[in-house]
Structures are given as structure tokens and as C-alpha cells.
Amino acid sequence: MIIKKPINLILIVTAYLFVAYSVEFIFLSVDASYFWCISTNFFESINAVLPIHCDEGPYRQASESLDFFFSENNPYQKRPIYVFFISLLRELLSFLSFGLLSNYVVFRFSMIILQLTILFFIGFNAIKLFNLKKLNLENLLVLITIFSIPNIRWNLLFPSHGNLTLLLLIYTLRKLNSTNNLDNDFTYFTIIGLGALLHRSAIIYGFIFIIIKVLVTNRFSIKNILSNLFLVFLPTVLYELSIYFSGYQSFDWNREVYGQFYWILDIFLGRESLYHDMSCQQLSTFIGCNLNVTKYFVQYFLIGIIFLVILIILNVKVFQNTFFKNLLLSTFFIYIFWSFQGLYPNFRFVNYSLGYFLFLGLIFINYKYYKSRVLSLCILIYQFSVLYLEPYSVLKLNLNYLSYLSIFLFFVFLFHSLNLKLRKNDKYV
User: Fold this and answer.
1) In terms of Cα–Cα distance, which of 220, 201, 214 is closest to 349?
2) What is the CA radius of gyration of the chain?
3) For residue 386, what are the contacts with CB-CB under 8 A and spacing of at least 6?
């Protein structure tokens, strides 16, 4: 069987959702009530326990009312395509269910379908990136471990558009690996431009792509750079113009309420603005705030970090690999980008750089040098040991039996791989 066939990938993605849900809520019996902005509830109409995120309300209203979408009560006006897809799915499911499902259940199913769609494209690009061809256990484990990155796994049941950050990264890494210059990337920059209307951070990936390509090829063409950036910004410009001529008002919640990134502009222009939290929005404080949440990230994911460090030490030549170098550079630029936002809710945004580097690094080294089922299982169990739900209150990992099991499997893998290496050395002595 060919893994990249759409129907096969759809079946894998759908099956993964049910298995992950069963493990999380039936086998592990996770209770999300101690996490900020999240609670768990039982829905008798669909006989399921589901986590409820406080973002649900605005997304529901924005996807059913144009007036609310363009109001100052909507935090998501700058995500028009994402909200449009929610609205479209709601209309489709309402039609297909013949009114048998409540409005809320239709909304939840719509969100799950949208998240599965994002997961499908993550898988599709991962297959291209890692050159996965056959549907065998090793290749399947690559996909499953990518899907099981903690914040990705949990977002499958949330309205969050956070999973788009992994999709954007994997898509960018794939294109970086497959193109040698900036002359033939019309499709990439067009998609990134449209992606900015789903998740505005898509724009930074366009810049990262250009920077890395210039560094690698030592070719610098102002014409190509400007034409590509034009494609990146064009959809956003057209969207803002459409709002202007529609009679509605453009409202940027992230700017007006949180001052994300705009606080820097205010400082240089000498404007005094009062945002949600000003404590980290100073040139003298933002670096310290970002380093502080990075510390929490390291504490929380220390086991995985130790795994990755050991694997890198054992495979130093990985730094010569094109994929790994692109991943490392992308991680660096993404980390720097988010460090300037001025809003630091623990390590949520650090995940978009260091978090993805951690897990993609583990997955890649295993696939490239070992293809070890034991190591894949170790990574997977470690991922599920992290009961991650945007832990605004949990700052360090409390070890559980899954943590200890992943550590045990890692030592089993190390013993086996080192033993094989010694046997090979003895053979040539």
C-alpha cells in the first residue's frame, strides 16, 4: 500500500483521532479542569467527554454572524479564512444532519473536522518531507509521532488554530528541501500569503524561506525577493481593502487589547498605549520575560531534551544534513520572532519554535539513522506522558509511569544500538 494516497492518509488521520481520544480520556482518564481556560464536560447527546476551551464562544459567534465577526467583541477578525471554513462546515453538517444535532454539537463536529483537515495536510507534507512511500510500520510511526506532538494532539479537540504553525513549518521545510533558488516559488509564497489569513504568523515563514535560501545559495536578487514578498502580503492587503469598502471597521484584537508586536512601534514613535499587560512590553523587560518562559519550557520537557541531546551527540554528523540545518535555522528565526511579541503566557509560543525542534529532531534522527521501533515507541510514550493542555499554571513536568516507561525504553534502545555498533567494530578488527 502507498501511504501518500489521500484515502489511506484520511483513514490514518481519522483512526488516530479515535485512538488518541481513547488513550487520553478513557485509558488515562485525563482531567483538564486544572488548566487555565479549559474544562472537561460530558455530552450525553454524543456520549463523549470533551475538553471545552474558552475560545469556543467567540469562534461560534464569529462563524454564524457577520456583524459579530466585524465587531470589536471578536478577537478573530484577522483570521477570516479560518472562520469561513468553520462557518462552511457548520452549514454543511447542519444540512446533512437534518436538524437532528444541536447547534453546539454541529459546531464541535465542525471544529474536529477542520482540525482533522489540518492534520491531514500536516501528514501530507510530512510524507513529502521524509519521503515516506510504503505504508509500513516504520513510516506509520513517523506520522503518529508527528501527530502526537503534545500541543498538536490536544488541539484536535479545540477551536485553536495553533496546529497551523506546525503545518506552516513542515510545509516550509519541505519547500526548502525541494527548491534551490527563489525563482520558481510562486505556489509557496501564494499559499503563505493566503495562510496569513488563517494564522498571521505565516508571513514570518515567507521571510524565513527567503533568508535561508539567500544564505544557502549566496544569491541575492532584489527583484525576486520583492516579487515573492508581494505575493505574501497581497491577500492581507486585499482583505483590509475589502473591509474598508464594505462599511465595516477593521479591528485588530491582538493590537488593541494585547499590543502584540505593536508595543515596539509605540515605543519608537513615542506613543503611550495601555495594553492588557505592560510588564513585559518594555525594551528592558521583554528579553527577560521570554527567557523566563523558555526556562519553564526546558523544565517541562527536560526528559525529551535529554533524549535529543544524547541522540545528537551520538550522531554529530546530523548537523551536515540539509533538513536538520533548515530545521535549526527555522527554529532560531521563529524563536526570535515570537520573543518580540510582548505577551508571554508561560511557554505557549516557545512551543512554536523549540517545541517543534525538540520533537521533529527526535523523529528525524530516529528515521534517518536508526528506524528503531523501540525508539519510536519511546518517543510516542513520552509524548503521551505530557498531559499538555496549554499549561498556563503547570510550569514543570510531574513524572508519571509513562515518563518512567519512556526512559526505560530509551535505555533499551541505547543498549541495543551501542551493542550493534560494538559488533560492527569487532567485525572489522
Assistant:
1) 201
2) 22
3) 150, 300, 301, 397
- Grade residue 203 by pLDDT with cuts at 50, 70 and 90: very high
- 10 Å Cβ neighbour count for 47? 7
Rounded Cα distance between 52 and 343, Å, is 23
Phi, psi (deg, nearest 5) at residue 53: -105, 145
Question: 43-52, 118-127, 281-290, 384-393: which has the minimum mean pLDDT?
Answer: 384-393
Please tell me whether the overall predicted TM-score, pTM, comes out greater than 0.70 for this model.
yes
CB 170 within 8 A of CB 123: no
| CA dihedral sign, ordered 16, 17, 18, 19 | positive
Yes or no: say if 89 and 115 are a contact pair by the CB < 8 Å rule: no
User: Cell 503534545 appears where?
Assistant: 150
What residue has cell string 546530523? 318
Contact 164, 198 (CB under 8 A): yes
- pLDDT grade, residue 119 (50/70/90)? very high
Contact present, 156 and 25 (Cβ < 8 Å): no
Crossing angle of helices 6-21/137-147, nearest 10°? 60
HEC states along the chain?
CECCCHHHHHHHHHHHHHHHHHHHHHHCCCCCCCCCCEEEEEECCCCEEEEEECCHHHHHHHCCCHHHHCCCCCCCCCCHHHHHHHHHHHHHHHHHCCCCCCHHHHHHHHHHHHHHHHHHHHHHHHHHHHCCCECCHHHHHHHHHHHCCHHHHHHCCCCCCCHHHHHHHHHHHHHHHHCCCCCCCHHHHHHHHHHCCCCCCHHHHHHHHHHHHHHHHCCCCHHHHHHHHHHHHHHHHHHHHHHHHHCCCCCCHHHHHHCCCHHHHHHHHCCCCCCCCCCCCCCCCHHHHHHHHHHHHHHHCHHHHHHHHHHHHHCHHHHHCHHHHHHHHHHHHHHHHHHCCCCCCCCCCHHHCHHHHHHHHHHHHHHHHHCCHHHHHHHHHHHHHCCCCCCCCCCCCCCCHHHHHHHHHHHHHHHHHHHHHHHHHHHCC
Chain segment 262-280, per-residue pLDDT in tens = 888 888 888 877 776 667 8
Instruction: Provide the pLDDT for residue 273.
Output: 73
Residue 207: which of 82, 109, 336, 54 has the closest Cα? 336
Question: Where are the domains positioned within the chain?
Answer: 1-161
Please provide residue 88's backbone torsions phi and psi, each rounded to the nearest 5 degrees. Answer: -65, -45
**Which of 174, 198, 360, 199 has its CA nearest to residue 188?**
174
